Amino acid sequence: MTSTNSLGSTNITVQFNLSRNLDGAALDIQAAITAAGGQLPPQMPTPPTFQKVNPADSPILYLALSSPTMKLSDVDEAAETTIAQNVSMVNGVAQVQVYGSQKYAMRAQLDPSALASRQVGIDEVNAALQSGNTNLPTGTLYGQNRTFTILSNGQRMTALQFAPMIVAYRNGRPVRLNELGRVVDSVQNDKTASWFNGVRAIVLAIQKQPGTNTVAVVDSIKKLLPKLAGHIPAAVRIDTLYDRSVSIRSSVDDVKFTLMLTIGLVILVIFIFLRNISATIIPSLALPMSIIGTFSVMYLLGYSLDNLSLMALTLSVGFVVDDAIVMLENIVRHMEMGKTKLQAAKEGAAEIGFTILSMTLSLAAVFIPLLFMGGIIGRLLHEFAVTIGAAILVSGFVSLTLTPMLCRRFESSEHGKLFNLSERAFSAWLRGYDRSLRSVLRHKFITLLVSFVIIGLTFYLYTISRTGFIPDEDQNLAFAFTEAQQGIAFQDMFQLQQRVADVVRHDPNVINTMSSIGNPINQGRIFFRLKDRKDRVNQMTATEVIQSLRPKVSQIPGLNVFMQTPPTIRIGGALTKSQYQYTLQTPDTGELYETAPKLEAALRSLPELQDVTSDLQVKNPQLTVEVDHDMAYALGLTPTQVSEALYSAYGTRQISTIYSPNNEYYVIVELLPEYQTNPEKLSLLYVRSSAGKLVPLNTVAKLVPSMGPLTVNHLGQLPAVTLSFNLKPGTALGDATKLVEQKANAILPGDIQRTFQGTAQAFQNSFTGMGLLLLAAVLVIYMSGLPSAGVGALLTLILFHQELNLYSFVGVIMLIGIVKKNAIMMIDFALETERNEGKTPEESIYQGALVRFRPIMMTTMAALMGTLPIAIGFGAGADSRRGLGLAVVGGLVFSQIVTLYITPVYYVYLDRLQRKFRGKRGRPELQERPYERPVGESALVR
Predict the structure, then answer these.
(1) Are 701 and 682 a contacting pair, CB within 8 Å?
(2) Could you tell me the pTM of the whole model?
(3) Do 731 and 610 form a contact (C-beta atoms < 8 A)?
């Protein structure tokens, strides 16, 4: 639970465990608000409210309403009353934030000199406004023949109606409100503003409820907007600043294209190896059958077709054909022995069936640990793991049933010169592998040492790899927080904000900008929508666009600008000026406020970080009212009267309410603006005492200048200060967290609690558990090829300057399963040969390696081609997925070369170890010699 408290408002964010039902949590919050109601101030303008939304989430839709002819208060009426209220009722919408609200209000701006000359106290003005603006039920007149409802005209609606209101009588004549200052039609909060492309506008930021579908919610809103547009003035223009569903649709379309490209590449690989259209169709049919079956599982589980599930399907394309390829290759091998198609299908399927079952179950088992991960990472990967696991299991079922049946109907055909030529090339490839494998088996100990070196290299590469979390996705959106000195005047902040927004708006990569200031006055926000990447200058990424803007906005004096791109997934409930948070807390606020700036300064000195800032704002200029209580009581005044008089003068006080047919508006009392800037005018304010005399406030109170907090923050029950930072390009999050902790340990005293929050905290927790996840995955599979896969993956990521993040780590998990399938194909054949033909382990694994060479190469190339489009993909969201593709491609290329030799050596040594452990004497090994007939050299069925 975190809270931010400022003058007149408190925002509390309560974050629940992911297992907690959101509707049930909302009931608990409502009950807590009700229980605390008795302790809240009795004069609160509105009771506390709550929303089921993460305030740190990026809005899914920005709408800007503007008009060249209408007043902003009228535009606000259309925005807040017509658009916002109706949109907030759309299913899935959590809240509609209004930037730059200009809701109508009537302001009575009093002149202290006029009050003094007419001997009118400011409290008398308040009383007159309250009593002179009423909207009360009057009653009913029941006549003999007709019933009448009685109405009164006590309700005033505009400044023109308020102006002649009689406040008091002096010397027998009325003193009217317009004689005591100005009565104007104004707005409720004139210290806030927003712009759309440099034009004053009202901006609506629409946030969705957690767990709802962004595209569906946006579609519902867009369907409603044309109807609402007919209920607002024609002069009001509605512009869409940003639509999150556009980038989601583009990303999904890109994944769909990648999926189709992957299917095409995998089928091409099969055809290159088989060179027969009919034979290619058989394993290729496993693709649509597996995908359709997976869709059925997803439908039954209520999953949506999103980036993660589509990425799982894309990755599965590369190896759902593996089982069908192995089944086909084995049946074809039996056909080449002279058996009929029916006999070959039966015997080949029976011989390889257990191998395929082992391959399918072991590959699916790799993803089981993902299902048991907790927290936000577990929630993200759960759907991914189920989808890809379902695809694997369905493909195994298809391979064991449909593929043998199709092979029974498979028609052989004569092959031409091209086929024979390519077959001779493959045979030469196989002979080369045969010679190299015999050499490796003659030097098994050296090969074993090489495998140990590879294991050591894997650990070394892991230590030097840049670690990240969830890669950012280019959503064609960026935003900036602006911050000026505490206590800045609104007009100064107004001008500074416009200068920054103009710089951003005129950047050639920017389409639209929204800028706003207020709450607090010294801070503002700028959201800017970027062109599609292909249309940007030099096809810059969103991060590069931000980096190019930094030196431009830094030239504007008096304003700090903190830019960032919205993360793919916002973790945590705090929206800070920079993306990553580090929170300090202790009951001793003095120590906290003293040490936090020291750590902030130390973090600013780190070259790996940028935009280092904090939410500590305790140097805001303030005036303390010191009331002389004895003097006040002697003159017939109470401290409450003094405070209320000051509140009326300087607090933008709502003193009454205007009720219209479709809304309600404030009646505000305050001093004229020119008197609100000078504390010395306090002597001109008078309050009526209990004795009936007017008493000047400066006789009982004085204003003492001092410094105080602008906001006060808590984490849980303790005061807290949150430092936030962004990463310099090329800096990994793992390196940054280590540097921050080192600085904190060196500077902070031991009694200050410190912890990362949001994304940085989730990153630490996830990588703590990922080691256990990797170990769990290794325990359920055969791991002889794992070291080489890890080396290839990590080396590829390093060479292409990619981080070892969540997606690429999933790629490493996949590699474990893919590499293991190759080992299973070799080992299963070797075990059968050893049992049935009585061969030695070395001869058996040698024969198994040669026999399974073709299906191993086919399945590996299929998996490689299936992942290659992800590794080199372009388009929406491709950058975030590239690390996964590179990890799989690099791992497969390296491991394919190495495991063809390491697996046989491991098999021989493990067999010896097993025999020794059982206390049995192993059979004498035969002399190393080539197998009599290298099985697999002949072509597949003609």
Answers:
(1) yes
(2) 0.79
(3) no
